[in-house]
Amino acid sequence: MPDLSADLAQQKQKLREKLRFRRRHFAANLDEMTRRIAFRAPPAPLAGILNAHNSIGAYAACGGEPDILPMLALWTDEGRIALPHHADRIDTMTFRHWQSGDALVKGPWSTSQPTDTNESTSPGLILCPLVGFDRHGGRIGQGGGHYDRYFAAHPAALRIGIAWSVQEVDTVPSESTDIALDAVLTEQELIITGDRL
Predict the structure, then answer these.
(1) Residue 140, annotated as binding a ligand
(2) What residues bind ATP, as annotated (predicted)?
């Protein structure tokens, strides 16, 4: 009998490689107008959602990911933004408050993160970077499962994925540990994928 979990993992890895290339290429070749306006202001529905949360999980972009920190400047100035933090190369991801001017340090997964001294928080809204997505809330991330474990431990938190439109696929292969998104924001649109928004 074939190992279906191994086959699914292989499908996801092949898709991840393809979409990472697509993301990097698209980000590197943005036209000037798109570069100026992409992710600079949240669409009205998202602004209302952001205003409703005292703690908002975001991320420091890398590898062609959309840079959403300029879009969140108002909430950053109010001290409501938190970024992922890893204490070590372990499964557990937390969030720590971050404001403009606060240092970012290289984390164990080579991502930029707040220092160990920044205060921990549990955001009620998470804006997470994607490698790929579909219109049903399916998401594919870097492959470490950090966001899925965080979402499972904090089921009430709203989950909004951030991606370039070229990262969309018809259907993301999924398994029981994959947790669906409530929405996806691209440079073109806000796609509502769940019934919690």
Answers:
(1) yes
(2) 12-16, 139-147
